[in-house]
Amino acid sequence: MNKTSADLNCIELLATVAGQVLQAKSLREENAETQSASASETKNPSGRVSSCQVNLPSVRSHQVFVPGKSLFEDVSKLENRQDSNNMQETFGKDEEKVAVSNFLKGTELPTNYMCLQNAMNELVPDPSEGNCNREEESTSEVNILTQDSSAHTSLPKSSNPGHLGSLTHFNSLDESNSFSGRNLFKGGTCVTLLPDNIPQPLCFSSGKEAPTHVHKQSHSLCSEQPLETHLDFSQDLLRLQAKDDDDNFSDLVVPATTVPVGHLMPVIENTQLMQSQQIIKLHKEEASVTKGEMKGIVNDGVIGGDLHCLQHFSSQQPQGRKRRRTFKPSKVSIDTYKPSSLNPLDLDAKDTSVGSSPTTIEGSRRSRKRKSNEIHDCFPVKVNITSFRVPELSINLPETATVASLKRAVMEAAVNLLGGGLHVRVLHHGKKVHDENSTLIQMGIACKDRLDSLAFMLEPSGVSNTSMNIGESIFAYPKVKTQHGACYPVFTTGDDLEGSRRKTLNGLSSTDAETDASNNTEAQEKEDVVSNVGECAKLGQCAPCDSPTPATAALILHPHADVGQQTYVSFSGKRRTRRPFTVLEVEALVQAVELLGTGRWREVKQQVFSHARHRTYVDLKDKWKTLVHTARIAPHQRRGEPVPQELLDRVLQAHTYWALQLVKQQEDIGDI
DNA sequence: GTTAGGG
DNA sequence: CCCTAAC
């Protein structure tokens, strides 16, 4: 599991370690005392640096180019149409909404929305200068920045708390949807950019222009083609191999073809740089480290055996060269800084780095003691992957789709694309290095003055054309085309009972729709609550949506995707804005429960609240709970908008009824 | 992914 | 409304 996340982690660390390796020589000569805080922890008793410091790379996610115009137009409709309420719901604050508007117009979304968090904010260029520069974008492939020693020493844990990307986890953005289950980014681990304030980063590109601050190119949202999101993945990347549970290696090679994908990688929260730092100790003469080994080191250290960049370390050993140590897991250790906090990711990192081979660190420590005079074999290099790109993707969305739907679509596409794994490719002087058994010294890339000759690239692997796969899950639901051309899910409740219940609910909906048109908010609420019921009634009359041509790999989302829990996520990732239930909603809820019973909240959500995107079935359940409580307490003890006593009576009545039903059901089971 | 229940 | 255990 988590192959993808493993891949990403691997790549991240790969970049980091590779950079460290490259920098080893110079750093080794640096005063060990100037090592950042992490170094102190890696000093052996003699005070010498026995390991190199590796920052978990803050790999910046590739940019999402939301196409532009048409998307803008379409989503603009979302803003202006009735769903504006939902937009408000989604984004909560006004400024957030503004931000979304900007996004729709081609500006970077607020980072914390598209899973990009604050760390990116300052990197976001002026929208006016970043719009749609596809050419610029095209030059931004996987770039690995190698910090020089000055940068290295200037990165104490407190110096760049918000800049240097580090791994962290974000749970608030996990929408419990399909992609979250994939754990693409393993708890939010993501790619971020190197900050501008990193002293003279050495940028390694694919050998083209070697942009120094590639990340600056990567923020604009390009809008050129309607309803297309472009993720540009580099054509060449490092190769990685994924190892499954059975130790089978699967080569993950995939041409970076145009694939429908989305990008939406969360960006690292940079506030816990040191917590996420890891120490990688290379007890090896650096010059003989092969590129493949570099990858393996990273891999084993971080992924803990789940992913291997190397075929086998032993098989990578240069022939005719005596190796005192190989980079087998037992001989390469990665010490993770153990923060005082309990950052899940940190724990994760530690667990994954050492958990799978508990003897690794032990062996390493023993080795360190035994060969304390070999500490100079370690050379720290700092590398950050600043960006990588994903091939373009095309996502078609109904105009009624929410931004959240777009986000999911993009994420799902990205997951589908990246699910096959990533490849890491090493480039030397812009050329792909195929002989991974070559040592760094043989390649001449161990020399300090040639660091800029090395580049790493990431590319998606697995399938050359994942287009057809992208939307499969989304297409799983039967859909109908509404009069507006939008696709809606078909209710599949089949039995007559369900049908009659639905019929009743529809009746309620219609009645309500006719009785309350004075209050816009209320009307909107009503619309949200019952509109899908109306749609439901029309289902049988509607022709199915045309399935997208597989070749176009179009994604069609529909509101059904919002039915799930927590599809509405607070913009800030914090507590959602309180949205008290209206009387209308309460009435709809009561009637639904009367018909469906308690404990069927998902159905209630689907049938009555599916368009009320801010109401999850958990919300409905909670509301019912509070309704029951409210009905039981004295009227003067009640707070908030008064609920008609008639409704409260029905609440208690239904509550009692279904409780009895449950008891009877259990008794029946007991009798059997 | 849903449901149930405590906070 | 959040969180999480349990399923």
From TrEMBL:
GO molecular function: telomeric DNA binding
Keyword list, A-Z: DNA-binding
Domain HTH myb-type residue range list: 573-632
Polar residues bias locations: 33-52, 140-161, 353-362, 506-522
Pfam family of the protein (one): Myb_DNA-binding
UniProt xrefs under SUPFAM superfamilies: Homeodomain-like
InterPro entries noted in UniProt: Homeodomain-like_sf, Myb_dom, SANT/Myb, TPR1-6-like_ubiquitin, TRP_plant
Region listing for Disordered, in residue ranges: 29-52, 126-163, 314-372, 499-524
Gene3D superfamilies per record: 1.10.246.220
Sequence ranges assigned to domain Myb-like in this UniProt record: 573-628
PANTHER family, per database record: TELOMERE REPEAT-BINDING PROTEIN 2-RELATED (PTHR21717:SF70), TELOMERIC REPEAT BINDING PROTEIN (PTHR21717)
Protein's UniProt name: Uncharacterized protein
